[in-house]
């Protein structure tokens, strides 16, 4: 059983929206999802983001990929091909989410490995990945994939402490 990253498709609507609701409050699953839009419109928005067209002022060229394990949606990976001020400090190039029922199986590590290939194919040589300081599982994933800790940023009044890693 190997997890595979792939674009979201029309067939993913139910599973993706279920995952989005399941992770609500933990972190975003479907970036830019507006509950009022149709799923085909959302897929077009993802395609535009990959091409770098029709982006909101605070968005960068990026892709959002489904993590598929034997035909089951188990997570997602976002890969940003450039950084704005926020991403350069906190968000980084790659973010990933694994649904609760599939955690602690090595899937996040494989997802990050594959996301690094995607980033490099789009010209990103040095990759910034961040995680909450308290998220020891994510820190271990990043370190297994070659992440070198640059710094731990202390929590501010409206945020949590987070770790900044670079992967060459």
Task: For the structure shown, list the relevant keywords.
3-stranded antiparallel beta sheet; alpha+beta; Aminopeptidase; about 170 residues; 5 helices; 4-stranded antiparallel beta sheet
Could you characterize what this model shows?
The chain has a single domain (3-124), classed as Aminopeptidase. Helices cover 32% and strands 27% of the residues. It is built from five helices and seven strands; from the N terminus they run E-H-H-E-E-H-E-H-E-H-E-E. The strands form two sheets. It has a four-stranded antiparallel β-sheet with strand order 1-2-3-4, with helices on both faces. A three-stranded antiparallel β-sheet has the order 5-7-6, sandwiched between helices. It is globular, with a radius of gyration of 15 Å.
Terminus-to-terminus distance? 28 Å
- State the helicity in percent bands: 25-40%
Main β-sheet description = 4 strands, antiparallel
Number of strands: 7
- Structural category is alpha+beta
Low-confidence stretches: none
What is the number of domains? 1
Q: Which second-level CATH architecture applies? A: 3-Layer(aba) Sandwich
Give the C-alpha Rg. Answer: 15 Å
Mean pLDDT, as a whole number? 93
Shape: globular
CATH homologous superfamily caption: Gcn5-related N-acetyltransferase (GNAT)
Describe the strand arrangement of the main beta sheet, using strand numbers. 1-2-3-4
Percent of residues in beta strands: 25-35%
- For the record, the CATH class is Alpha Beta
CATH third-tier fold name: Aminopeptidase
What is the succession of H and E elements?
Answer: EHHEEHEHEHEE
Helix segment tally: 5
